[in-house]
Amino acid sequence: MITDTYTDYSIEQILALTAIPSPSGYTHKAIKYLFDKLSEMGYQPYTTRKKALLCDLGGEGEPLLLAAHVDTLGAMVRSIKGNGRLRLTWIGGFAGNFVENENVTIITRDGREYTGTIHLVHAAAHTSRETDSMSRNDVNLEVIIDEVVKSEADVMALGIRNGDIIAFDPRTIYTSSGFIKSRHLDDKASAGILVGLAKWIKDEGIVLKRRVYIMFTPYEEVGHGASSGIPDDTVEMISVDMGAIGDDLKTDVYKVSICAKDSGGPYDYEIVSQLIATADKHKLDYAVDIYPYYGSDVEASLRAGYDLRHGLIGPGVFASHSYERTHKSAIENTLKLIAAYIIPDA
Questions:
Q1: Is the pTM of this model over 0.90?
Q2: What is the CATH superfamily name and number for domain 4-72+184-342?
């Protein structure tokens, strides 16, 4: 079985990735980080025209693709208000109250960066009785920039324009008790796990019994991450994404979650069964769950017409699309499940 060294390494990569802003459409820095990391290990990663990153980990026969996404939720400047504040438009799907009072970075097209905070348009409880009742949406929330700006002209003088990216502060914390608290664990937790898997294969000289690719996609949060660029010989694809927690689901922040069905329908029966059997054999802490409001990269591939067997697993993540939370144990269980699945005697 894969050792704890690679769990710790995976967590190092998760922490590094959460520090890199990468809302959908602005993922090039995260992709470059992964490209450089895999190249340092001795692999030969490459990017698609759509700027997904692919890497062949070796092996022959029955090619399997493991996909995680590096794009995150975020926002974009919709317009500049006359008072020097910014109206937002969301990138990805989330509730506005999840980002109220969040610190952000505004990134201009020429690379300048400015900080700011998302507030209600009537933010002060001492001056407005509407603070409790106002809808938290892209009309009532705005960005106040940390610069002396009082007009649209002042903002434009900074180089800020409509369409500029707004990245949320990840606020990443790794506690001594093993909890990881951060925005964007969806899906940088699993991206870090796949980097850890790649390092294990290379460091230990693992001989793969089948060809294994890993893929990091740039547009999953907006629905078309893995709709192109899949290697032609791929016969099986597993999305390695977050395990949803809530309601009557059994997944928690210590488990690897195996998804049997989400909003796109059931996953491949044989793959789900094999993942369960593998988790049982290796005595992993896992749950099998239904995610009612969830879609994955592999579904984008199926809708694009790829003929693939498909599955979905991931570490349990609490408070999805908000300030998320998981634990080292979930990272470990997910990494071990993947390793044992691709190499039954791992």
A1: yes
A2: Zn peptidases (3.40.630.10)
